[in-house]
Amino acid sequence: MEPIDSLGRPLRDLRISVTDRCNFRCTYCMPKEVFGRDYAFLPRDQVLSFEEIERAARVFVAAGVEKLRITGGEPLVRRDLPRLIALLAALRTTDGRPLDLTLTTNGAALRGLARPLAEAGLGRVTVSLDSLDDDIFGAMNGIDFPVSRVLDGIAAALEEGLTPLKVNMVVRRGINEASIVPMARWARDIGVTLRFIEYMDVGHSNGWRLDEVVPAQELIDTITAAWPAEPMEARYRGEVAGRWRYADGAGEFGIISSVTVPFCRDCTRARLSADGKLYTCLFATEGRDLREVLRDGSTDDELRAFVAETWGARDDRYSELRTLSTRDDRPDLPRIEMFAMGG
Ligand code: SAM
Ligand code: SF4
Ligand code: SF4
């Protein structure tokens, strides 16, 4: 039996964070002032093993999950990642289809890993890139990482057929607004889908302020002024990006507008952190400890019951609630950080 949550939403996708570490220090995610040399990342024994992740994923797939996204931290810094991909690629949906198996990465290590990942059965990738301008991108990624190396990683992924490839761009007012149109032009030219992400108030470290969010409508106006486009129907319930099709046939772009246009009603996503906490919302205040169930000798049936019970009790709709409250007074609850939850 596939669990349904208390607001009638099925469980369809699972994001799995495979590490809380990262080789970047993006200002909006892991600012280097906070995540310095002596920051205590998870000790190895607290991170789920590949076998534990595969077992958990199998149970989620039996509960209705059809899409797995590997994330982090930076997933490509986890050693031997293609071995995990091979384990997950062997899973099938309840009606026997292959899963939609994908990964979100900063692209830094893609040149070397695109082929082994594709050979292991990864379907496609999403690469994060916030600007084509080295000064802007270097400041945003916190380590002066060059744009050219990410572009080369994207080229490698395209060569290996990890498509349709998407590119995520977090937009921050006053920081990379000038990159919006150049990024869109580049994505159109090489045939990848660019998705603009509203800067979100996850965690505590990034000093989020509402006036740094460029609202979805403004992004849409900027792009459609350059290239006319029309909105498309969502492909499936719970699709998070508003999709727009260019009138001239040069593909589409997306807008992930969790701040100004919340999409909680259709949210079918669970998240598993690197240390095995199960979260039912990106803005959750606490997760349930799945690792303990994986490690305490529980059977697969007990694991299934744990997942079903967690999902059945779910009533999260943080973004909707925030939009209902006055715009600037966000609920001030303890939140976990994006890099820990995996975005
Ligand atoms: N390291 C990988 C990467 O950057 O693609 C995967 C993990 S990262 C946490 C996943 C996504 O979350 C990235 O596309 C990143 O840009 C986005 N992200 C991180 N912090 C964010 C924030 N405060 N607001 C909006 N998006 C954010
Ligand atoms: Fe690392 Fe991704 Fe966070 Fe940037 S957004 S610091 S690449 S985890
Ligand atoms: Fe889903 Fe929570 Fe985001 Fe709403 S706020 S869309 S429930 S993750």
Named CATH topology: TIM Barrel
- From the spread of the alpha carbons, the general shape counts as globular
- CA-based gyration radius: 19 Å
* Share in helix: 25-40%
Cofactors, ions, other ligands: S-adenosylmethionine, iron/sulfur cluster
- Reading the helices and strands in chain order gives EHEHEHEHHEHEHEEEEEEHHHH
Count of alpha/pi helices? 11
CATH superfamily: Aldolase class I
Helix and strand content put the structural class at alpha/beta
Strand order of the largest sheet: 7-8-9-6-5-4-3-2-1-10-11-12
End-to-end distance, in Å? 28 Å
In short:
Helices cover 31% and strands 16% of the residues. The chain is α/β, with parallel strands linked by helices and 343 residues long. Strands 7-8-9-6-5-4-3-2-1-10-11-12 form a twelve-stranded mixed beta sheet.
SSE arrangement:
Elements: E1 13-17, H1 50-62, E2 67-71, H2 81-89, E3 100-105, H3 110-120, E4 124-128, H4 134-141, H5 147-159, E5 166-171, H6 180-190, E6 193-198, H7 216-226, E7 229-231, E8 242-246, E9 252-256, E10 269-272, E11 277-279, E12 288-289, H8 290-295, H9 300-312, H10 318-324, H11 338-341
Parallel strand pairs: 1-2, 1-10, 2-3, 3-4, 4-5, 5-6, 6-9
Antiparallel strand pairs: 7-8, 8-9, 10-11, 11-12
Helix pairs in contact: 1-2, 1-9, 2-3, 3-5
Residues 22, 24-26, 29-30, 72-74, 106, 128, 339 line the site of one iron/sulfur cluster.
Name the features.
binds S-adenosylmethionine; globular; 31% helix; TIM Barrel; twelve-stranded mixed sheet; 343 residues; single chain; 11 helices; binds iron/sulfur cluster; alpha/beta; 16% strand
